[in-house]
Amino acid sequence: MTQTDGNGASSIRPAAEHAFAAELEALRAADTRSRPPNWNLSPQAVVTYLMGGRLESGAEITPKYIGDRRLMEVAVATLATDRALLLLGVPGTAKSWVSEHLAAAISGNSRLIVQGTAGTSEEAIRYGWNYALLLAKGPSREAVVASPVMRAMQEGRIGRVEELTRIPSETQDSFITVLSEKTLPIPELNDEIPAARGFNLIATANNRDRGVNELSSALKRRFNTVVLPPPATIEAEIAIVETRVAALGRAFEIPAEPPGAEQIRRVVTIFRELRMGVTEDGKSKVKQPSGTLSTAEAISVVGNGLALAAHFGDGRLSARDLVSGIAGAVVKDPVQDAIVWREYLETVVKERDGWKDLYRAARESA
User: What's the pTM?
Assistant: First the structure.
């Protein structure tokens, strides 16, 4: 199903519940297990949606998360209790992706989101006011502008909080009453919004970026934390990049051949080696750059390379299409990271069999 705007134009980034509507419908039709209140699917079916599989009807469910199934089981089980879920991990470990798909599978609406930034206010979490109505009629329920969290509470759905640790500490604690009492007070009206059954929150956070605000102990106790690790093996990371790049190519209608497995392997290998500080064979240590070099960045590099190949090349992804994206991902600090990248090129890329084209392209673009 294609999501469209009011003018019928297709959406660049359809919500998960629209992009995977056929899979969700197939799971609903086949799901005979008990469901928590106001859930669209049973916990087992939600995990199948995330991890993929084939149903008895023959419908194929594509994997949304490639990794440890037990982590997804713990995450889903948490949301079936009164505990909120905190997805924690370094940047690029699919926290937002998993959060979106959990909300889509459970509630059928993944768009009840608070995006955490240094400027996120209490009003963005609790509620605001329609000032025209406020001035005309005074404080009333009609004048209250519901936040995504309030809407999730009223409708018994899953609310999402992205980058929780980027929200100022004093504002973060606005969630404590919501999570502990399952109610949202409106002191101006001497009233409150009780959470309907099915309500819960999924928050994402990382502790690697600048601008991180630690959670208070009181808030931490309201969450069950699931740590999403980077892909354990190179094969798993390659599979993730292949899947996401293919989806990007379809979404943006990039007229290029699907990238060869060898080109994706090169990008993933470079990122993993620089991320871990050692070559894949374990024989040589390499300096680590300042950036995280996440799987998400690898996806971006390959996707950008495809666009270059399609619009300014012969339609086939080449080393020349990749090198600028790789260098841009590695070199965040123009002094220190540039040294790391040059050393890696001369000591690893130059000496590796079958990588001469990548080395030449990198030297030419330097």
Answer: 0.89
Q: How many helices (H) and strands (E) would you count in the chain?
A: 17, 11
4 pLDDT above the threshold of 60:
no
What letter represents residue 36's amino acid? P
> Strand runs (DSSP E) across the chain, as ranges?
53-54, 60-61, 84-88, 113-115, 127-129, 144-146, 158-162, 183-186, 191-194, 200-205, 223-227
pLDDT higher than threshold 50 for residue 126: yes
Which tens digit of pLDDT belongs to each residue from 26-40? 999 999 999 999 999
Order the strands of the 113-115 sheet from edge to edge: 113-115, 158-162, 200-205, 84-88, 223-227
| Nearest CA among 308, 321, 365, 319 for reference residue 342 | 365
Amino acid at 28: R
Structural tokens at position 223: 């969450």
Domain boundaries of the chain, sorted by first residue: 67-227, 234-365
Tell me which CATH code domain 67-227 carries.
3.40.50.300
d(CA 238, CA 4): 31
In angstroms, the CA 281 to CA 284 distance is: 8
